[in-house]
Amino acid sequence: MTDRPTLDDLSAGVPFANRHIGLAAVDQAKMLSTLGYASVDALLSAAVPASIWLDEALNLPAAGTEAGVTAELREYAARNRPMAQMIGLGYYDTVTPPVIRRNVLENPSWYTAYTPYQPEISQGRLEALLTFQTMIEDLTGLPIANASLLDESTAAAEAMTLCRRASKAPKEAAFLVDKDVLPQTRAVVGTRADGLGISVVDADLSQGLPDGHFFGVLLQYPGASGVVRDFEAITATAHERGALVAMAADLLGLTLLRSPGETGADIAVGTSQRFGVPLMYGGPHAGYMSVRDGLQRMLPGRLVGVSKDVDGGPAYRLALQTREQHIRREKATSNICTAQVLLAVIAAFYATWHGPEGLRLIAERTHRYAAVLAAGLRAAGFTVVHESFFDTIQVRTPEAARIVAAAADRGINLRLAGDDLIGIACDETTTADRLREVWAAFGVSDVDIEALDTATADGLPEHLLRTSSYLRHDVFHQHRSETSMMRYLRGLAAKDYGLDRGMIPLGSCTMKLNAAAEMEPISWPEFAGIHPFVPPEQARGYAALIDDLETWLAEATGYDAVSLQPNAGAQGELAGLLAIRAYHDANGGTHRDVCLIPSSAHGTNAASAVMAGMKVVVVRCDDDGNVDLDHLRTTLDQHRDDVAALMITYPSTHGVYEATVADVCAAVHDAGGQVYVDGANLNALLGVAKPGRFGGDVSHLNLHKTFCIPHGGGGPGVGPVAAREHLAPYLPGHPIEPRPGADTVGPVAAAPYGSAGILPISWAYLRLMGPDGLRNATGSAVLAANYLARRLSAHYPVLYTGAGGLVAHECILDLRPITKTTGVTVDDVAKRLIDYGFHAPTMSFPVAGTLMVEPTESENLGELDRFVAAMIAIRAEIDRVGAGHWPADDNPLGNAPHTAATLAEDWTHPYDRQRAVFPPGVTAATKYWPPVRRIDGAYGDRNLVCSCPPPEDFA
Ligand SMILES: *Cc1c(COP(=O)(O)O)cnc(C)c1O
């Protein structure tokens, strides 16, 4: 016997947790000694209240190796069966151009970036989003588009509420939905309408507008059946009767068909999926919305606009930010926060790559295949239902089920649209061989495709053919060669600051590592190529992965059931609140409609409550930032009979573990209310405490924070909702894939499993970390936050702390006293951090005039110390301004960020160039150069421009 390691030991290699967690053991020891704790556990037990402390380890599989976990994922992938997907219904096969897949989808410069709230370091993705908006505006023929929504169906639901706000129709007016709207869209619209008390009327609008009062009308163009109808007359009648018209339109179809704007529509919505974004079993994909002039200030979601920097050069930033809905809390009209930026960027680049001619060619080819397919079936005696279509045809035959099965045997999914009805959708990937296979499934052989092609007319109605041009801007014409495209993408990425450059210490956002091993599976065809409405036997791998993930998340949170459907945190909130309402309804509490929300809460909480039809009552916080228990008790007394829920974030958005959380939950339960624990901050809890155990009835989690799905510059996301047993029956359902027992609450997303395509990322994270790794991650995140708080507290007051003077996973630095005495603002510090090579912490949330810092477990001590040094150096600069050494209107802080171009100007500042661009700790070798100087947001809001500016502006 020797001490030689066994083969097992040798094979284990470096645990993945050591790759994910940036802090080596020696670093942790140094940091602990700074804080005066003997171990991470000692630190945790001092910070976390004993009342919520978890004694047992999480019951999750032990950590796997990267190779082992990849092999397991391969095995799951092999259980999925990618087919030729001709189901349609808003999801189509598409080719992601390899130059975009490799340089964008699989490139951390793009996928690790944050929402562009700091526009000076986000010009690349802002330009891409402006291209997206320009593309949507052009194709839909409407002047203002936003920078993406969550999917087509939620976009339609947002259109409904926009119509309600903009229409002068009487209060009792209903929302009218055409019968050819996509079934999943009808269902999501229904869920939203129920929440808000809006009545929805279904009608066949090819028969004209029914009697009654309507504030809005929803049309599908082309319809779910594939038919292309002329909506001009119906739109005119709707307008005469005081209703707005929203058209859900297919972007590829719009390259050939008259646009919604030209037809008179007020709003266009849809998905950009088929512009190069794989099917992903339903998502993530970027939904879109564009509106006519006059509605732009009511637009939900984010809007990119053109403004200028202090040098007068054009610069992009989010426009009308005060209008950004969730920030308005209970006054919000939408709860969209995380959207689908990465996918919108991909769709925009797809249009950039193909240009208008290329897109038109793809559309014409798609249409011609559909036309020839229809002609072949007609010639064989089959009934093709509609004369006018773009890409989808319907065939009426008593043999429908048998034919769909025969096609499946040939590797093709058709849609069984009724007992005697088959839907077949052509797309970018359709070929002549594919048509032969489809015909064969119908028992049709020996078709002469060439002859049929020559003999068959188009199926597009003459009077609906598009005559207006689109995508005329240079950006859609300049990058036809791959060399040019590659350089264009590189040039944009070079302007941006992502996790591939340095730390992004954004409080409340958890910008941790998105490991390559977690990311790789999402582009495997067995995950990427699955249509969301395939029969279950083709998605067994997904089913297994989803089942694991639901089980593991339930275990990690202490809840009984999990739904992965919500495709952002705020959608999880909505689903959770709808569950609470349905529960009260079923238990004689229909009148309970008050939602208590602490003043410190994230803005989406109040916005979601309003969308669930609840009244928001704000509960105050005390001087320590905790929920004011006395005020809570008085408020509960006032609303004892009508309180539906309390929404509480834990740890609080103030970054502390509130000791009284169990009391807060108990008080709400005593009053007959349910407790919603906002679980977006789970990075401070995993393996340490479970919200489902300390009083929560339901929570949402943000897989794009704690569970490693990258932020993508503002999306995608997954916001699972987790609930205790009594709320489980009220988790979101779906018409296409009904969940047993769930029939009272409809879907909150278009696809049954929302953004299913990115679930392998979180699955891999949990599987790679294991229970010990996850707990270590929590401990390391809390250690890092406390280390920063301690190191910085002498220079910037830390606003709130809990037991032992400790914070949780983030800390708020209070700049207000400093601003008062020196005039230097949080903005100045945030912009100056750019010169030091950092992304600013979260600014002015949840407290105005403060910075909220969240380092996460993924940063190493060197990077934390670099940040500390930068903040201390900035503090010294602030003091120089305060002391009058530098004038208030000409100093390195107020002038930040400094660009390379400023160096070439006449230098008149009272500090030198060295100080400007190479402050302490910054070297020429590692320098990040911002492409623009400070951006004037107000200028852009007064002169709203939301499409690509002419290239001359950049001369
Ligand atoms: C991020 C966050 C949300 C919203 O999540 P989205 O995915 O952006 O909708 C809600 N609550 C808290 C506390 C958050 O940090």
UniProtKB/TrEMBL annotation:
Its cofactor is pyridoxal 5'-phosphate. Residues 18-442, 449-734 form the Glycine cleavage system P-protein N-terminal domain. Keywords: Oxidoreductase, Pyridoxal phosphate. It holds the Pfam family GDC-P. It comes from Fodinicola feengrottensis. The glycine cleavage system is composed of four proteins: P, T, L and H. Residues 777-898 form the Glycine dehydrogenase C-terminal domain. It catalyses: N(6)-[(R)-lipoyl]-L-lysyl-[glycine-cleavage complex H protein] + glycine + H(+) = N(6)-[(R)-S(8)-aminomethyldihydrolipoyl]-L-lysyl-[glycine-cleavage complex H protein] + CO2. The glycine cleavage system catalyzes the degradation of glycine. The P protein binds the alpha-amino group of glycine through its pyridoxal phosphate cofactor; CO(2) is released and the remaining methylamine moiety is then transferred to the lipoamide cofactor of the H protein. InterPro entries: GcvP (IPR003437), GDC-P_C (IPR049316), GDC-P_N (IPR049315), GDC_P (IPR020581), PyrdxlP-dep_Trfase (IPR015424), PyrdxlP-dep_Trfase_major (IPR015421), PyrdxlP-dep_Trfase_small (IPR015422). This is Glycine dehydrogenase (decarboxylating). Belongs to the GcvP family. The lineage of its organism: Bacteria, Bacillati, Actinomycetota, Actinomycetes, Mycobacteriales.
